[in-house]
C-alpha cells in the first residue's frame, strides 16, 4: 500500500484534472439536455481547441490563459454556425441519422487536423509548468490548480447564465417543452444555436486547459468523446451538476487506477464504469430513475 | 442486353485475377472486404435497427483468435474460424442480453457497443498472448503457391476468398431478409413496441440479429488476420475502424442488399482515386482519404438519407421500391 501522503496527492490531482474533464463533459451535457442531440464530434472539437491553443500560443508567444479568450469566442461562433446551418436541419430527423451526421463531422475534423498538422503530438510549454504549490503535506502542480480554477469559473458562469438570465431561462424553456416554447414566440433556431455555441465554448476553455496537462494528436478525438460520454452518463445525461461531479469522479478514478494498475490501463476503468452504469442505471448515478 | 449483364459481370469477377495487375487486384480485395463487413453490420442495423458503433470489436476478436492460434500453435484458419465465431457469439449474446434485458436502445446501445470495443482494445494492449501494443505478425513464407489449408499464397487466393465471403454474405442476407426472422426484424426496426404488442419476442430476435452479425464480422476478422498479416489492438479495435465498417452500408443504403457493395465501391474508388491522383502530382496527404470519406458520409446523410443505391434504383426503374 502506497504512503497516505502519496495517495492524497494522487486523489487531489485527480480532482483537479476531473474539474477540467467535467467542463468538457458539461458542453456535451448542455447540448444533449436542450436539443437531445448526441454530439459525437465532441472529442474532435476538444482536440481542435487544443490545437488552436497550441498554434496561437506558438504564433503570438502568448500564454494559454490569454489565448483562452479569443479561442473561446471563436469556438462559440463555430458552434453557433454549426448548429444554425447544419444540425438544426436534422433536429426532427431519426436519432441514428443525427448520430451519423455528427460521426461525419467528427471524421472530417480529425482528418483535417491530420492533414494540416501531421500525426506528431503537440503540446504547450510554459515557464511555470514545473512549479508546484505546497499545501501542508501535499504538493500539487500549479498548472493543474490554475487549470481547475479556470474550469470552475467557466462552469459557474455557465450555471449563472442558465439560472440568472432571460436567455438562459428561455433555453431551459425550449429544453422542457419545445412546442410550448415556440407557441410563446421563442426563436428556437437561434436559441439552439446559442446553446451549441455555449457547448463548444465549454470545449474551448477545457481544451485550452487540457493542452497544458496532456499532449494532443489528431487521433486524440475519440478518446475525449468517450471520456465525455462516460462522465455525462455516470452523472446523468443532461444534468449539469451531474457532469461536474461525474468529471471529478472519473478524474479521481483514473488517477487512482493509474497508481494501482498501470497508467496505460486506466481508461479501462472508465469504460467498465460506463458499461456498468449504462446497463444498470441508464439515467446516471445522480439522475432520476427512468 | 439486360439478361446478359449478370453472367457477364460474374465472368469478369471470376477472371479478374487473370486480367488485373496486382494493384488493381488489391483494390478489388479492399472493395470486397469492405462490402463483406458492411453486409455483416447491415444485418444488425439495416435489418433489425440496432445501431452498432463498435463492430471493430468482432473484427478484432476474430483476427486475434484465429491469427493468434496460427501464430502460437500453427493452427490453420479453418479451425480458427470456428473458435473466432464461437467467441463472437459469446461476446455479442452477452452484450445483447445485458443491453436488451435492461431495455437499452438507440444512442445508449450505440454507446455500449463503443465502450465494449474500447475496453477490449485497452485490454488486448496489455495481454502477452497478443503481443500487446507492439503487435502480432503472422509469418509470410510463401507468396507463390496456394496453400489453402493455411490460407497462405498469392493475392488471387485472397481475392477468391473475399469474393466467396462477399457472395456468401449477400446470399445469406437475402435469405434472412425473406425469412420469418427478416420480417420480425423489420417490424422491430420500424416500431418495436408495436412489434412486441403483436406477440413478437423482440428480445430473442434482436439477440439473433446481433449474434449473426457478430459471427459474420468475426469471419471477416479471420480474413483480415491472414490477408494483412499484422495486427495491432490500436488499429483493429479502434473507434475509427468501427466507423469505417459502417461507412459502406450507410453510404450505399442501410438495409438494402446491394447497399454495402455499392458503398464499398464508391468509397474505395473515391479514396484510392484521390490518393493515386495526388501521388501522381507528387503529393502525399495522409488523412485526405478519410476527409473525403467524412464528406461523402455528410453529403449522404444530408441529401440521400436512404443511401445511394435506393435512390439510384428508383431512378433506374421508376415505380419500384
Describe the structure.
The complex is a heterodimer of chains A (290) and B (321). Chain A has 290 residues and is an all-alpha fold. Chain A has helices at 4-35, 42-60, 64-86, 95-117, 142-164, 166-176, 178-183, 188-213, 221-235, 240-260, 266-280; strands spanning 132-135, 138-141. Chain A is built from 11 helices and 2 strands, in the order ααααββααααααα. In chain A, β1 (132-135) and β2 form a beta hairpin. Chain A starts with a helix and ends in a 10-residue tail after the last helix. Chain B is mainly α. Chain B contains 14 helices and 2 strands.
Describe the structure concisely for a colleague.
The complex is a heterodimer of chains A (290) and B (321). With 290 residues, chain A is an all-alpha fold.
What is the succession of H and E elements of chain B? Answer: HHHHHEHHHHEHHHHH
Proportion of beta-strand residues of chain B: under 5%
Tell me the series of helices and strands of chain A, N- to C-terminal: HHHHEEHHHHHHH
Largest interface: A-B, 45 and 41 residues
Named CATH topology of chain A: ABC transporter involved in vitamin B12 uptake, BtuC
How does the overall form of chain B come out from the CA principal axes? globular
Structural class estimated from helices and strands of chain A: mainly alpha
- Major β-sheet profile of chain A: 2 strands, antiparallel
Oligomer: heterodimer
Number of domains of chain A: 1
Number of alpha- plus pi-helical segments of chain A:
11
Distance between the termini of chain B: 23 Å
Spatial order of the strands forming the largest sheet of chain B: 1-2
Biggest β-sheet: strands ordered side by side in the sheet of chain A: 1-2
Number of strands of chain A: 2
Number of DSSP helical runs of chain B: 14
Beta-strand content estimate of chain A:
under 5%
- Average pLDDT for all residues of chain B: 90
Architecture (CATH level 2) name of chain A: Orthogonal Bundle
Number of E-state strands of chain B: 2
Question: What is the distance, rounded to the nearest whole angstrom, between the alpha carbons of the first and last residues of chain A?
Answer: 40 Å
Amino acid at each position: 500500500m502506497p504512503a497516505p501522503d502519496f495517495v492524497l496527492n494522487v486523489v487531489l490531482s485527480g480532482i483537479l484534472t476531473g474539474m477540467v474533464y467535467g467542463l468538457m463533459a458539461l458542453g456535451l451535457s448542455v447540448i444533449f439536455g436542450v436539443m437531445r442531440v448526441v454530439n459525437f464530434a465532441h472529442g474532435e472539437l476538444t482536440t481542435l481547441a487544443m490545437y488552436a491553443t497550441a498554434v496561437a500560443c506558438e504564433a503570438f508567444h502568448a500564454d494559454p490563459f490569454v489565448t483562452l479568450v479569443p479561442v473561446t469566442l471563436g469556438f462559440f461562433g463555430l458552434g453557433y454556425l454549426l448548429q444554425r446551418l447544419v444540425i438544426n436541419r436534422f433536429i426532427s430527423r431519426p436519432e441514428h441519422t443525427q448520430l451519423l451526421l455528427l460521426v461525419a463531422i467528427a471524421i472530417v475534423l480529425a482528418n483535417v487536423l491530420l492533414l494540416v498538422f501531421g500525426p506528431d503530438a503537440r503540446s504547450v510549454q510554459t515557464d511555470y509548468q514545473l512549479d508546484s504549490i505546497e499545501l501542508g503535506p501535499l504538493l500539487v502542480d500549479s498548472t493543474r490548480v490554475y487549470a481547475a480554477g479556470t474550469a470552475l469559473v467557466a462552469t459557474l458562469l455557465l450555471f449563472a447564465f442558465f439560472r440568472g438570465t432571460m436567455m438562459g431561462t428561455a433555453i431551459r424553456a425550449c429544453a422542457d417543452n419545445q412546442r410550448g416554447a415556440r407557441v410563446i414566440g421563442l426563436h428556437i433556431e437561434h436559441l439552439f444555436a446559442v446553446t451549441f455555441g455555449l457547448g463548444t465554448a465549454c470545449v474551448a476553455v477545457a481544451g485550452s486547459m487540457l493542452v497544458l496537462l496532456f499532449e494532443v494528436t489528431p487521433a486524440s478525438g475519440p478518446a475525449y468523446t468517450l471520456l465525455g460520454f462516460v462522465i455525462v452518463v455516470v452523472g446523468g445525461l443532461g444534468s449539469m451538476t451531474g457532469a461536474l461531479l461525474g468529471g471529478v469522479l472519473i478524474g479521481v478514478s483514473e488517477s487512482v487506477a493509474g497508481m494501482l494498475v498501470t497508467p496505460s490501463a486506466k481508461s479501462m476503468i472508465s469504460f467498465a464504469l460506463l458499461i456498468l452504469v449504462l446497463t444498470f442505471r441508464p439515467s446516471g448515478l445522480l439522475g432520476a430513475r427512468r | 442486353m439486360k439478361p446478359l449483364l449478370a453472367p457477364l459481370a460474374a465472368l469478369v469477377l471470376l477472371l479478374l485475377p487473370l486480367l488485373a495487375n496486382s494493384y488493381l487486384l488489391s483494390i478489388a480485395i479492399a472493395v470486397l472486404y469492405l462490402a463483406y463487413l458492411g453486409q455483416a453490420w447491415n444485418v444488425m442495423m439495416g435489418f433489425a435497427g440496432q445501431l452498432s458503433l463498435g463492430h471493430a470489436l468482432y473484427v478484432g476478436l476474430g483476427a486475434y483468435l484465429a491469427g493468434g492460434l496460427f501464430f502460437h500453435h500453427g493452427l490453420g484458419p479453418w479451425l480458427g474460424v470456428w473458435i473466432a465465431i464461437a467467441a463472437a457469439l459469446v461476446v455479442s449474446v452477452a452484450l445483447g442480453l445485458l443491453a436488451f434485458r435492461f431495455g437499452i436502445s438507440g444512442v445508449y446501445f450505440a454507446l455500449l457497443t463503443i465502450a465494449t470495443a474500447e475496453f477490449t482494445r485497452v485490454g488486448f494492449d496489455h495481454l502477452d498472448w497478443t503481443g500487446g501494443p507492439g503487435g502480432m505478425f503472422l509469418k509470410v513464407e510463401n507468396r507463390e503457391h496456394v496453400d489453402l489449408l493455411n490460407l497462405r499464397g498469392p493475392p488471387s487466393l485472397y481475392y477468391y476468398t473475399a469474393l466467396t465471403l462477399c457472395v456468401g454474405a449477400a446470399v445469406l442476407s437475402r435469405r434472412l431478409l425473406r425469412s420469418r426472422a427478416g420480417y420480425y426484424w423489420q417490424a422491430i426496426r420500424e416500431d418495436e413496441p408495436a412489434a412486441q404488442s403483436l406477440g413478437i419476442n423482440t428480445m430473442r430476435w434482436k439477440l439473433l440479429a446481433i449474434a449473426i452479425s457478430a459471427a459474420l464480422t468475426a469471419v471477416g476478422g479471420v480474413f483480415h488476420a491472414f490477408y494483412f498479416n499484422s495486427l495491432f489492438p490500436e488499429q483493429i479495435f479502434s473507434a475509427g475502424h468501427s466507423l469505417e465498417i459502417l461507412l459502406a452500408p450507410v453510404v450505399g443504403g442501410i438495409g438494402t442488399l446491394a447497399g454495402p457493395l455499392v458503398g464499398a465501391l464508391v468509397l474505395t474508388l473515391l479514396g484510392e482515386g484521390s490518393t493515386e491522383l495526388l501521388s501522381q502530382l507528387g503529393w502525399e496527404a495522409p488523412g485526405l482519404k478519410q476527409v473525403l470519406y467524412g464528406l461523402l458520409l455528410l453529403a449522404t446523410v444530408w441529401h440521400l438519407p436512404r443511401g445511394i443505391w435506393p435512390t439510384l434504383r428508383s431512378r433506374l426503374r421508376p415505380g419500384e421500391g
